[in-house]
Amino acid sequence: MKLIRTLLFCTLSISMLAACTQVRPWERGLLAKEEMAWRTNALEGALNDHIFFSKEASSGGSSAAAGGCGCN
Amino acid sequence: MKARPSRSLLAISTTALALPGIAIADAPPVNSSLSYQVSNYKEDDLSREESPFGDLGRYDIDVHQFQFISPLGRNFSLQVDANYEDISGASPWFTTIGPSGSPIVSLSGASGIEDSRGELSVGTRYYLENGSIGGNIGYSEENDYRATYGGINAERHFNNDLTTVSVSLSYSSDDIFPTDAEIFNRVISEDKSSTSAVVSISQIINQVSTFQTAFSITEQSGFLTDPYKLIDTRPDNKTQIAWSNSYRRYIRGSDAAWHVNYRFYHDDFGVTSHTADMSWHQNFGNTIQVIPMLRYYNQSAADFFTNVDDFSRPATDFQSSDYRLSAFGAISAGLTVKTTVGDWDATLTGERYLADEKYSAFNVSQPSAALIRYFRVSLGLDFSF
Hints:
The structure holds 2 protein chains of 2 kinds. By secondary structure, chain A is mainly α. In chain A, 42% of the residues lie in helices and 0% in strands. Chain A starts with a helix and ends in a 17-residue tail after the last helix. Chain B is mostly beta strands. In chain B, the strands form 2 sheets. Chain B has a 16-stranded antiparallel barrel with strand order 1-2-3-6-7-8-9-10-11-12-13-14-15-16-17-18. The interface between A and B is large, with 50 and 114 residues.
């Protein structure tokens, strides 16, 4: 229940962000820079995902899972 | 980095391609790109205290990654990923009580493990006026493991393209056929499946900052036990949930970008974890970028984790001495240096990872032997044309 309340609170917080200052398309140049991407290096990100998936109990989050492996 | 209109457009497009990202009118990448990265992953040897008998060497893995991204007609893009891993070393086989009363571990096989893994994935994406839809299929094979997987995803922009909502679904069917099964009384052949769904919302906050939150649920069923452990019995179903949050901020005065990520995770094996990481992407002129990174990970133990295998219990009782199911914390730090020359990018990364029960914020009633420490070094090349 506590988890659901937390998620609801956060979802509400995110939806309120929609009311933030308007940013026009021509004002988004800095946001489009490579270093502002959610994942700046696809191969580096994929390798880290694979290592952490193999060596920690946790996985998932921002991208859908790929195939498993026999890594142990 | 260096101001090149074509690369900026490519960056915008690949951002939209790679993940639910910043809301920008969607279009396929204008250029093709070819990327290669070679890495060495090396785990520290165990100490004689942790493993009094036998070999102490653990995994040493060389990884080769390839990626090709290209526009395909006016509204499509194509992405091909290929990976190859060359694996040698050993992993924990069973645990017992040592002379000092602490758990000790024996590694698998006196001569260690030699294996390789090959993987190929192909994906495409169709770009619409206010979003895009995509899909991918993939295949991974090792000497003792095979995975066939696929996924679809869609994203749509709202609120004057300030908000992006993304949905992803994926499925993987895996086959397990352990080596030397008859010699060591292992299972001959088993299978498992994994189904995942992810929903994310990305929001532009202002001219220099964005935020993303994502919720994922994964259902695994089938053979979830480690067949290489002398004794290991786990439930045949697992539900995992993860809630991720990412923040990006561009610092104008420093010509740098600050990344902060946090993930909460829980599964019905009883594991709860928190992961936080941050990185600083510092530009030096138009050709050099330096990226220091720091990550903290912390997990609780699975309900059935034991740090000493109990051979007196029935084989049907759930138990596992897998260190990955113990309570521990891990700290990792890395440094990446990236240089751009013409249409080429070269990237060098070094990362050190240290896991220890002392780093855990959770109660550690049964500290595990053989928690890993590793060093990774990667060299990547990227060419756009």
